[in-house]
Amino acid sequence: MSDIRVRFAPSPTGFLHIGGARTALYNWLFARKNGGKLVLRIEDTDTERSTDESSKAIIEGLDWMGIHPDVGPYNQSEYLEEHKARAEQMVQSGVAYRCFCTKEELAAKREEAQGRKDTYMYDGKCASISLDESNKRAQNGEPFVVRLRVNREGKESVSFDDLVFGHIEVALVDIDDFVIVRTNGVPLYNLANVIDDHRDRISHIIRGADGLTNTPKQVLIYEALGWEVPLFAHMALTLDPSKAKISKRRHGEVVAVEFYRKHGFLPWAFCNFLALLGWSAGDDREIYETPEDLIEAFCIERISKSNSIFNYRKGDPKFITDPKALVINGAHLRSMPVESLFPHVKKWLEERDLWNPRWDHEEKEWFLNTVDLIRERYHILEDFTEQGAAYFTDDYPITQKAMKRIQKDPVLEKGFNLLAERYEKLEEFNLETTEQELRALCDDMDIKPGLLINGVRSAVTGQIKGPGLFQILETLGRTSVVRRLRAGSKLVGGENE
Fold this sequence. Notes:
- This protein is mainly α.
- The protein has 21 helices and 12 strands.
């Protein structure tokens, strides 16, 4: 098995889950690190739950993350007839057999085992039926499932070496002749997966640890078919702070990739966060500025055997998701070249009808400088239109805390109006002159500069925090500042909430 080929094989039964996204990311990183290829297979054979909308959401989510498969996407259902034909070949060759036991018979045996407090296992009743008799009964329309004839000759266990968990061995006495084809003729997950992975020449199967229970059975299928067994690497699960597995049902949209796109995460920063949910390079590094940085550092043996924690607490008013995700995204927002951040902020503003075409041309320098100025305190793109709305529109919200500062002292009404008059008369409106005029006014009015500085900041931005006030004033420009000061003066008389 010389060529490295991995696959991501999601079921299209809902949105792209962050657990699935992490699996896709690890496979993609491993393929890129080793010059391999990533196959995207949509496992849509569960016709009752699979939807085209889910398939589309999965593909769009991966595309947003920057994970592009080398093969596919294709639907598993396209190969259903191949799966059926292979199962029939297995029956005819004797490595599998038809089981004609009825549901009632099996239920009675299961109940009997439970009465003895034993684990139920199929007793192999139909394993001794001759192929001729089996063929005749099938041709006569008698219902059946197909079971793998587990080969127990000369061995007591099935084993494989996992690249994360090491050597794993399961006693064959604990594995019965398990079903590989349903009564409706559709092969089950374990058989279909093995057939697809063999056809796709998959060399390494990187998936969640919840797949470990299926692996021994899949190894037995590979051996029964005489095929080379791929290498396995099972990733420990991601749990919430209460140690429950993260799930769509329990945690809602916060575990969907779409949630992060919708709230303004940078695609690569999101990937950076996902990579650290169960993997580290063995040092303290957490920020990987480019895909190339992470690809170079990625080593499959560094995947943790311990479950990772997605530190999300539902209903937390301070954090919309795991704080670490916000910290990592904020670090990327601040460190990437502002020219590289430009298209992300532009798209975000466009989607919210805040984009001004001049910022693409004659005022692009102003826009880039503004983005560079305000991004220092931001964590997600949403912050540009929430905390930073005042830089891009006159229709900006004023927070409750900012309103309290505006209404803190009645003297601010006069202060705002007098400052507006002084700013109108300035020959040059810049960092130095705006500060000089404000401090001179404070001296004339015998008030502390902090009172007016905090009030002005709150009035012209709607926020109590941000860059230095005089940087803000210079950025917003004389006309906008004067207009906002006069509008702010009318708010001073309101009740102090």
